[in-house]
Structure prediction request, 264 residues.
Amino acid sequence: MAYTTSAMKDHLGQTTRSDTWWLNPAAMALTFVVFVIYATWAALQSDFYTYPRGSEHYTYLSPFYSPPFQEYFPNINAFKIFPAFWVVWLPIAFRLTCYYGRKAYFRSIMMSPPACAVGKGERGYRGETALPWILNNMHRYFLYLIAVLVVFHWFHFFQAFRFFPDHRAAEFGMGVGTLVIVADTVLLTLYVGSCHSFRHIIGGNVDCFSCARGGELRHKSWKGVSWLNQYHNLFFWASLITVGFADLYIRMCAMGIWTDVRFF
Ligand code: FES
Prediction:
């Protein structure tokens, strides 16, 4: 089927397409709205983010509060800032500047345009040459910082196998929450590992792999990241959903609404 693009100059949503083009942006918009409302609410709670709740020997830590700066540097509590705020600005900045993330929110939230060959109305777009969109060029710097966050996620990943029955010494175990944290950590790692900027760092600036230092290893790494990169959109959504669900699960268990079932 051939689509005309003349509608793009016309009204918002005007198109000759007869398929369900609106379904994808509508689903993305709904996911974004639900996530933003829940994440904002959870970040403002400053409680129920560890399981067991409030214990210095916790097994699960909500990813919204990782790393727990208020635990490592108790003096920062003097700033009277919600603990989650020390952390969440980074994943927000990283996702907002993500190459795929831009496509997702431009289509679903800003509808500019909502889909291929669908009108976006009379809106000026000057590319990423002026504020605020020029800030998208900072993505690579957010990548360096988010790599540190991923390391903390792996630290809490291993903590999720450590239980303290009756506040006694730690013992190895595994519960449903462990699986939730494993899913969150692995999917976040795949999302960051499939990043376009990461792919460029690995091999995008090399003209000749065999001439470059460590060429063979770089070539293999670049091929691996390139393979992951084709699923970047999938990892974007999967990691967004699992990070939200990990907080919800830990919060519900800490509040006593859900029970964390231990396998062993
Ligand atoms: Fe999406 Fe870097 S391009 S995380």
Notes: Residues 98-101, 139, 195-197, 232 surround FE2/S2 (inorganic) cluster (CB under 6 Å). Residues 22 and 114 are 7 Å apart (CA to CA).
